Amino acid sequence: MSTNRVEYLFDYFTLTNYKSLLELALEKGFCFIVFTDNFLADRKDILWRHDVEFSPDIALKMAQIEHDLGVKATYFFQIHSEFYNIFDCYFSDILKKIKLLGHEVGLHFDAHYYGVKTENELTRFIELDKNYFEQVFDCHLSVFSFHNTNSFILKCEDYEYGGLVNVYSKYFKERFRYCADSTGYWRYEVLDELLKDSSVRHLQVLTHDAMWSTEVLSPRKRVMKSIQDNADRIKRQYDDLLPMLGAKNIDDE
Q1: Stretch 225-247: mean pLDDT, rounded?
Q2: Residues near 110 by Cβ (< 8 Å), separated by ≥ 6?
Q3: 244: which residues sit within 8 A by CB, 6+ positions away?
Q4: Closest C-alpha among 38, 40, 48 to residue 70
Q5: Other residues' Cβ atoms within 10 Å of the Cβ of residue 82
């Protein structure tokens, strides 16, 4: 009798296996490119992308693994996230560290935050978020990904909106196979099977930070652990701060 652990490959989604997948891609001759690189039809190109959803801390661990292997990826950060505040110094530093490791940074755009209904609105609000992001972090953005796609968003297939390249555009859909770990399991095809398939010459891979962990866990437990780890960090930050301020940290006893 099959279990969720077997059916949804819980053992697959560890950071140790994540490294193995990158090594497999290199072994199979894939060239890691970013979305603004020139596309070469006769080369095995792979677009490796991260939508940072829950834990920039885990994203940094993944970025370090990639850096150690000489691999370049693109990290898409939200500015309206319910799970992390990219403008908090702690997370801003993580973004900067990922850039220093040689990775690209893009905008993970949340159309739902603005209630976007038309492509004109889409262009306007992407440009608004882009300009704010660039000013705060003193950087240049070139590309964006959508957060939580719906039927309207998936129909927005222009190559560019608001001055940023659209990773969901028809251009990439027509040229690259797609593999995603959304919600903690392979939604379409299993990644290592695609990497081993000699007919796959061009591939876009989407990963999410908290869908990977150091230990074998269910997808929900991976996310819950990432949330709890961040909560514990904030608690420690509070406890450490009061003595620095010369203040009392009063508890029940």
Answers
A1: 96
A2: 78, 80, 81, 147, 148
A3: none
A4: 48
A5: 10
> Which of the four pLDDT bands, split at 50, 70 and 90, describes residue 41?
confident
**What pTM did the predictor assign?**
0.95
Which residue's structure tokens are 């297939």?
157
C-alpha 217/C-alpha 11 separation (Å) is 8
Closest CA to 77 of 47, 100, 54, 97: 54
